[in-house]
Amino acid sequence: MSLIQDVAGSGGPDPVPGPPPLSRKKKGSRGLSPGALFALRKTGAALGTLLFVLVVNFFLFRLLPGDPIGMYTRGRNVPPEQLAELRAELNRPALEQFLTYLQNPFASTIDSAQFNRPVWELVTERIWPTLLLVGTAIVLASIIGVWIGIKAGWQRGKSFDKVSTGVTLTLYSMPEFWLGMILLIVFGVGVFGLPGIFPIGGISSPGVDTSTLAGWLDVAWHMVLPVTTLTLVYLAEYALVMRSSLVDEMNEDYLTTARAKGLSDKLVRRRHAVPNALLPTITLIFLNLGFTVSGAITVETVFSWPGLGLLSYEALRGPDVALLQAIFLLFSIGVVLANLVADLLYALIDPRVRS
Amino acid sequence: MRVSRRWHVRAALAGVIASVVALPLLPASADESGTPSPAAGGTAEKTVFTVGITQDVDSTNPFTGIAAASFEVYQMMYPTLTDYSAADFSTVPGLAESWEESEDQTYWTYKIRPGLTWSDGEPLTARDAAYTFNRVINGDIEQTNYGGYTSTITRAEAQDDTTLILYVKKPSPIMYQLAVYILPEHIWKDIDAKKVKSYKNEPENGESVVGGGPYVLIERRKGEYLRFAANPAFYGGKPAADEVVFRVYKNTDAIAEALRKGEVDYANDLSANVFNSLANTDGITTVPSVYSGFNQIAFNMGAALTDGTPIGDGSKLVLDPQVRLAIAQATDRQVLADKVYGGFATPGTTVIPPLYTNLHLEPENQVAFDLDAANATLEAAGYTMGDDGVRVSPEGERMSLRLLGRQESSESQKVVEYVKDWLGQIGIDVNVRIVSEDTLYEKVGNGDFDMFEWGWVVEPDPDYQLSTFTCDQRSTEEDGTIFAGLSDSFYCDEEYDQLYEDQKLETDQAKRAEIVKAMQQMLYDSNAYVVTVYYDNPTAYRSDRWTNFTPQPNPDGVLLFQYGTWSYQSIEPVSADSGGSTSSGGGVNPALIVIGVLVAVGLVMGGVLIGRRRTSDDDVE
Predict the structure, then answer these.
(1) DSSP secondary structure code for residue B282 in this structure
(2) Mean pLDDT for each 10-residue chunk of chain B (621 residues)?
(3) Nearest CA to CA, how far is A174 from chain B (Å)?
(4) Under CATH, to which class is B292-534 assigned?
(5) Which of B288, B364, B389, B530 measures 20 to 30 Å from A199, CA to CA?
(6) CB distance from B40 to chain A under 8 Å?
């Protein structure tokens, strides 16, 4: 994670001043608005990135040394013929494997060497818990974080600002797994004679039907600690970025103008300052959305959350090339898509970008 | 203005405090009121035994799963012909009540218990067993897990409902212990060779998976837990615990906390620290549990392919038996057991651990820790001390060796440091490198090492472990790529190989044990491995809820994850209502939660509204 200033500074996409004047003249003949052109260009770039990832992904993991099959079967009585058969797929010429892979990277025929099952089946089993956990945390963190950031930035130097900046800086620098462990010990295990209230781990209690209301509440109860951990860590970042960009805006002339017009302090903040200051924060939120799929590996581990985090760690063992490929493809798609959405949204809320 | 903002803050704070205060109270009050929790499914009288596991079961289909926990599940779900006794791993009746090798040693007859049924009421007969064996013998995917057991069997035949005949190519002692799970033919005949790989074998529409072991699988949530119900049709009788739950946690610390809290009843594979901290907890009993694993320092005894072509870059120094002997003399196994394993280990000798009392050999001419003797051994073999405190071989080579340790194991990393230190004292310079297990596997297979630290878990049948020292298990080459065999020491000795073949054919178990012991002595004398320790499996369980575990072997062995399902069959709840509370530690009264949330939301809303009103007043001003 880079410094806060960096995040704030480079958070936005390139402020490209839109299409050159020449194309603007031809606007009518093409039938495309600058906005649509901008969207098309960004989408094209995203697709290009994905294609690149697809290719690099394939060859990158094949550079890793190792005999995964031998590793996985170590200590087990597997006949040699069976070993040869298990190795057959990985022993095919790389180019041949690549062509099969390109035909359909999402094919259900691609098997994990470790689990001897289709990789996408494994991945889809794990994706929902991660989306639930990280998604909830990001939504909560962005609402609370932005709110804190606005409050603190607007009252710069006041006590709320001092306290909140102190707290958020502490949270921001705190390793999430450590915070998770502290919360787990205090609220899960219980300290000083207090009983532990929340479960040690997992997403639901054995035997609870999650399709019922009781089941939903049970899941919500299991979510409290991991979501709190992630929310605290994420909100710190949002609050700090929001605060610093609002502080930047506060010296702008247009705010003085707005005040001179006699607008109340609240209106100046809500209608003028905040919308402009929100830009880097929104970008940051959407960039982080891309990382929801990759999940919070360490937090998932602390709370035994059955998400993608552990699967990616397990895939590294061996290495399980097919599984690694699938997971990284999924992560890349997540990040690229989130970037694209951030770009497009940026254009929507900041007219300067699409000019 | 100021007032308003304070109000905002105050209101929000009130809300937060309210929710923080309200939430903790809920489950506590739920517990106190004794309301049946949703976790118990509203059936409080059910006894549930919950086991914490760190590695999820990868598949409940016995043909596709490979994780250790999966095999625990299979033996709960399905019977095998014979079992390993809890007392000493000798062969005892399982699904078969007796077995016999034919006079001419061409087939074996197994008498299946009469009158059995599967959990769905269909008859369980020798025909199911014959079906299962033939399926493995003629199978493809089916071979992966069980091919090692059926390689000598040519075909299976059910003469009648209680008589199973297995025809063999050669006499084999493996016929006493065929760890092939007998499956219900009426279910599996519909799952052909194509379907078997993706067949999940999980409960569907609330129907349990049809089985014949002590428990049947009734629910599975991947990455979370598996639930089993006692099988009344089991030949050993219905077990006392109504349900067994395997619950997945991602680390043993979490399981230990869950045990302390009562979310689980059993935890194993604990670190020494965690074990000691649990030892003084009320209601929890800790047992070190003798385990079947050993760790070793292995040497590169001349890495080669099966055809004898040398590979790798191993040092010539460790080819000298005297050097290996000196290293063995300079390794204080007792210190390793005490300091590195926190006392949860015993010094090691041979590759068959002592818990296999029928097979383990206490070797003759044991090497004791003695640095002076080690120095003398090297001196006598012509390795003279150099000026820098490092010896020089008779050929003039400086005694410098590489030692690889494992990233995954903190014990491994400590052991290699100890060994480095001791070898330094006898004039051998050691370069320690810590690598991941897959890197180590790769390096060892290619012969690119001098020494490394790793270990094995040894099955009750010694064949697999002994095979790791045969010439045939050295590496192989295919299209320029070298594949590791099972051998990681590249030990290769004709006499040993002959003994290995002999024990493979010896169906008299006492005679076989003699051969196995002779092989252990050979390995011990060669110092191919310096077996450092036999490590324990520190275990803790809720003795306030469960009693009557059956250790394997008796009396100090492991309580669960055995070769067999002894403890699942024998455990009993301490009192009628104690066992059922197992997972209610994980239960909350939903009604109270709803009330709590509503109160918290109400407070927040109220606070915000008050704040708002003040603000608008300010604005008007």
Answers:
(1) T
(2) 44 45 40 35 73 89 87 96 95 96 96 96 97 94 87 95 96 94 96 87 92 96 92 96 93 90 92 90 94 96 94 95 97 96 95 96 95 97 94 95 94 97 97 92 94 95 94 89 91 96 94 97 96 96 96 94 96 71 43 57 60 48 37
(3) 21
(4) alpha beta
(5) B288
(6) yes
